[in-house]
Amino acid sequence: MIISKDDVQKVANLARIELNQEELNLFSGQLESVLEFIEKLKKADISSVQPMSHVLDIQNVLRADVPRESLSNAQVLKNAPESLKGHFRVPKVIE
Amino acid sequence: MPAEKPLYALTGLELLDLIKQKKIGIADILESQSLRTKAVEGKVKAFARFTDNTASGIPIAVKDNICIQGQLTTCASKILENFIPPYDATVIQRLKKSGFVIQGQTNMDEFAFGSSCENSAFFPTRNPWNPDCVPGGSSGGSAAAVAADEAVWALGSDTGGSIRQPASFCGVVGLKPTYGRVSRYGLIAFASSLDQIGPLTKDVRDNAYLTGIISGYDPNDSTSLNLPVGDYQKSLEKDIKGIKIGVPKEYFSLSGDGELEGLDREVKEAVEEAIAQLRKLGAVVSEVSLPHTEYAVGVYYIVATAEASSNLARFDGVQYGLRARNADNLITMYKKTRQAGFGPEAKRRIILGTYVLSHGYYEAYYLRALKVRALIARDFTEVFKEYDCIVTPTSPTTAFRLGEKLENPLAMYLSDVYTISANLAGVPAISVPCGSNKAGLPIGLQITAKAFDEETLFRVAYNYEQATPWHKLKPKI
Question: What pLDDT, on the 0 to 100 scale, is given for residue B1?
């Protein structure tokens, strides 16, 4: 076995997704078969190449550091589930 | 004789010609289209919602993951079911400047995760050629809307085949432009190094026209390149005598593996016939090799899920979208929000992507995948040193039945086996109709060219299309 139910639970926790028992069972089996399929990458000879994170021959695209028009505070908060006095509001962070 | 057909059945450029000749007005198009939509949308269910337009213009349908200012944009996900973007995506700005109005937003697999449109949180879209079959995905709504003549044309997005595979399944033309050709600003990100927006249309001419409108440099997308946009309409005028076409042998030797399907016989025959047609038109066709093809799906499901897990971290119930109300601290709120807001495929992909990036697995999976990606890209570079384009099937099968692959994610992923490589290598690829199987379902031909050479794609696709009847076939709905 490549990925155990405990692994899936641990990773789901890292990804901040709560899973119920049914999802945990289902995903564990499905992820196992996907990872099994992915195992074939081990056959490829990668000794001659650098990792390719994207295809373009560009790096660090920068713009001039000058202020531009941006969204207003009201526009930014418009989609927020909860806001208070111009800020996003979230549940308690520290006990 | 276009005038004898109902307006909704015409192509975009046929309609624009009639407007220019003052034979029709935009109101005539909107009326014809509204009648058509009323008649067939109940069966096809291509649209997530229609726009209540006050402005008038040439109508276009847009996939529901492209931000439209002031208009609900949801990615077919519960987590964004109330999201109203405060700005227009660059492609939307460009369309509006060119006189278009957004007719409606099309259904899709949630966050573009899927190849069948069944992962929509709303409802599945049906294939206009057979309502028991999927339209493909993830841009299935856009493909079905165009195929059913509900939309003149549409935009989709393509991360591993999400424009081309549904175009193939629905018998329309779909282009994934070169990575960097079309701005991704305002496209809700799935996998940032793979995503591109592109058009789905009734024929190649319309596709070339729309591509010209949406292409070009955008300072808001640091991965859009500042290169001149070709004259795509003009590229259609040239014949293809002497053009060098490579046919990769690996794509034709795909065999079934246990319960997994190989290349369908009828698809293979249709594509071979298309290749014979290209030869007749003067193309020089030879067999070539893309030796790392067998790794493409594996690389893709590491790279794409890794990027997705990072991109979707923003959906946490704080800035926009759904928030679970039954949480007494922040972490619990995140977890409950994401449990309630994401569908099963989104959860699977986020978990897989987090796994391949996590400590202890990063090198074995993610880093290795990036290296194999370089090998796949190099395969294309080598072939394009000698050849102008590559011709393959778009998908190994025609449209499959609803539910057929839903319980087996791996089988669903393999539906993209022929389309994924173009995203990994960043090169442009187009799907054009090239036949139908005995059951009457469309088959697609994929043409791939070197980066930023959309002209050659359109030229080859147009010459092929004009020599064959396939793009004129319409589903009976």
Answer: 45
Cβ pair B105, B338 in contact under 8 A: no
B339 touching chain A per CB within 8 A: yes
Q: Which residue of B has its CA nearest to A28?
A: B348
**pLDDT in the model for residue B401:** 97
pTM value?
A: 0.97
**Gap from A34 CA to chain B (nearest CA, Å):** 6
ipTM computed for the complex: 0.96
Query: Among candidates B62, B61, B63, B57, which has minimal Cα distance to B15?
Result: B57
Residues 6+ apart with CB under 8 A from B310: B353, B357
CB atoms inside a 10 Å sphere around CB B242 = 9
Res B255: pLDDT: 72
Q: Using CA coordinates, name the residue in chain B closest to A36.
A: B298
From B63, B78, B405, B450, the catalytic residue: B63
- Mean pLDDT over residues B138-148, rounded? 98
Task: Mark yes or no for CB contact A71/B86 under 8 Å.
Answer: yes
Sheet with strand B442-449: strands edge to edge:
B47-50, B100-106, B58-63, B153-158, B196-201, B173-176, B429-436, B442-449, B389-393, B244-248, B284-288
Average pLDDT, whole number, for chain A? 94
Distance set, CA A61 to CA A52, A56, A58, B220 (Å) = 17, 12, 7, 11
Helices (H), chain A: 5-14, 21-38, 73-77
What tens digit of pLDDT does each residue of A72-89 get? 999 999 999 999 999 999
Would you give the DSSP letter of residue B314? Answer: G
**Does residue B338 belong to the interface with chain A, where contact is any CB pair within 8 Å?**
yes
CA distance A81 to B81: 12
pLDDT at B404 over 80: yes
Q: A-contacting residues of B 382-401, CB under 8 Å?
A: none
> What pLDDT is stored for residue B447 in this prediction?
98
Contact at CB, B87 and A71, closer than 8 angstroms: yes
**B138 catalytic per annotation:** yes
CA of A17 to nearest chain B CA: how many angstroms apart?
A: 5
**Structural domains of chain B, with CATH:** 2-292+375-472 (3.90.1300.10), 294-374 (no CATH)
